[in-house]
Amino acid sequence: MGNPAKKCSTSRLPVPSGRLLSWLLTCLLLSWLASLAATAETPPSNDKWLEPARSRLLENKEGLPFFPHRANTPNNALLNVADFDDAQVCGACHTEIYRQWRTSMMSQSWEEPIYRALLRHASEATEGRVDNFCTGCHTPIGLTTGQINSTVNRASVEFTAVHNPMPGVDCETCHNINARTGLDNGAYVLSPRANGRPTKFGPRSDAVSPYHDTVYSGLHTRSDFCATCHNVTHPFSTVAVERTYDEWLESPYSFNGQTCQSCHMPGFAGKAAVMGPDRADVASHWFTGANAAVLSYLGQEEAAQRARDQLARAAEISFESMPDHLVPGQEVSVRVKVANVGAGHKLPTGFPEGREVWIDFRVVDGAGHEIYRLGAIKDGATEPDTRNFKVHLGDKDGKELDIEVWNATQILSDNRLLPKGYDVREFTLEVPKDAVGPITLTAELNYWPFPQRLVDYLLGKDKLKVEVTRMGQVERSLPLGTPVQAAKL
Ligand code: HEC
Ligand code: HEC
Ligand code: HEC
Ligand code: HEC
Ligand code: HEC
């Protein structure tokens, strides 16, 4: 289409002077019309939803049939629902593995209420642009068999349980993955019926099954298998939303051969299938994480307890630089050390809007009066200035986001504990003049998967009481003394 504004080329000078003004006006009018025409052709770009500039792969929609999710299938065709068995079918032979997996968060990743409430908000706020994205990790089979749309994503858990039953991350999801094309955003390749027959990819080269072919897969024995879902990158702004895999990769665990599987799928002596051989180290499928609150809400009390036990093993808390005694009327500083001794990634890791570890520090005198506290829960969140370990996401104006993660364009701060790392936090208080000795100082290390405030917003008040899990505690009693005594000591 010709640009009418070009006709105003200055090469046509000299222009008869009397008509100069009207000529200029005509030019302006024509350029304005031209710019209007241009706007009609390309709708104004909404910079909130910029197409990804990150990689050519992301721009190639044919290479990404489930854009903006990175899942692939053979020939990138939609998969057939009938190609996948329900986990219960696998469970008929893989009894113990099924029993374990059934208690895990991953087995509930489509039905669990927190995900679904946030999914509904995300789907509405982005007019469906993240529908594929979320589901590709939370119900991979649902997405790749074409069962996902905005209506399904915005429906209630009760409704979809009847009308759109779909698995979360189940046996068929993980054991039909035969390759990956990247390390984030669900870059797995899901290939059911490779070779025209049901084929399961797994860690053994000597597994024989009457029900399916088995193929050895080195990928399943490595952390990069988990990376496809445990690294979440914002598909439009490219912010690193979750980075559990990268955190592990840069830790001492990765070069000491301790994988995600070493800690989250430790071996047990027994059978992988009822008619299979006895083995010394069958990969367990508990997938114990940290989410005791949601697990107990879902009725998985034993799994919730495993999460609490794992959290207790993850960290150590201790006092540093403690005085021998306290002086009434004087200020004292207490330093508390927290070390990540058990998590192969940052502590906490994962879901950034929620996961938080913090110190609840309390000082009580001999008469039982609380003389200081920092780290209490107020209005459904840890109180301001709490010494915590958390990542904070922000939008383009630098405003912190607790809910609208789809608006994230930057990481504002991240003070989580590195794997095998530690941090020291300080508390300063004044001992009241009338305090009664001895003074007891207590530092509790706590975890919750999300603040109560977030859950109340997502589910409504009093629907789910968020449990605060105690990861560790340290306590010390100090006598009161005089400054003279203090100087002597
Ligand atoms: C009729 C019984 C039966 C059923 C049903 C069954 N399997 Fe198996 N499967 C076996 C046996 C037996 C083995 C070999 C176990 C061994 O060697 O320890 C096996 C092995 C496996 C392996 C290990 C493969 C490897 O190479 O490491 C995977 C993965 C697997 N099955 C997944 C599944 C999935 C997923 C389902 C459901 C779709 C399923 N199985 C259904 C009997 C069954
Ligand atoms: C050295 C053992 C170890 C390794 C290796 C390890 N983890 Fe963990 N993981 C833990 C412990 C302990 C916890 C509980 C404390 C916490 O939440 O970090 C945990 C928690 C988690 C959680 C739940 C976090 C939350 O708060 O919701 C996820 C998800 C997870 N791990 C995934 C992974 C993945 C994926 C890998 C590999 C990239 C991995 N882990 C490697 C020990 C490990
Ligand atoms: C999140 C992904 C994931 C899910 C879900 C999952 N598995 Fe696995 N499975 C794995 C990985 C990874 C391994 C190999 C672990 C290793 O080698 O350390 C494995 C190993 C196995 C093995 C071989 C165990 C052995 O040591 O001989 C069998 C059999 C198996 N899985 C069956 C199942 C069944 C049945 C289900 C559903 C009830 C299931 N898996 C769900 C990822 C998964
Ligand atoms: C297909 C995607 C996918 C793969 C592959 C995958 N995960 Fe997950 N995983 C998820 C999703 C989604 C959740 C969150 C479920 C929820 O809370 O709604 C999750 C949750 C978890 C949790 C529970 C976290 C908690 O807060 O308690 C652990 C532990 C975990 N995964 C470990 C692993 C390990 C280890 C591997 C590799 C062997 C792996 N996952 C592979 C998608 C995946
Ligand atoms: C690349 C894979 C991936 C994508 C895409 C993804 N998630 Fe997740 N999601 C995970 C994993 C893995 C976890 C578990 C992390 C942890 O336990 O801390 C998780 C955890 C969550 C949780 C916490 C659930 C709970 O009960 O603690 C919510 C809520 C959630 N995701 C919502 C979403 C929404 C909404 C979207 C789309 C905007 C989305 N996720 C996209 C992998 C993904």
UniProtKB/TrEMBL annotation:
According to the entry, every stretch annotated as the Cytochrome c-552/4 domain falls at 89-175
What Pfam family is a match, any one? Answer: Cytochrome_C554
Keywords for this protein: Signal
**Signal peptide range:** 1-40
Record's keyword annotation contains Signal: yes
Report the InterPro entries cross-referenced here. Cyt_c-552/4 (IPR023155), Multihaem_cyt_sf (IPR036280)
Q: What is this protein called?
A: Cytochrome c family protein
The record lists the organism as Metapseudomonas resinovorans
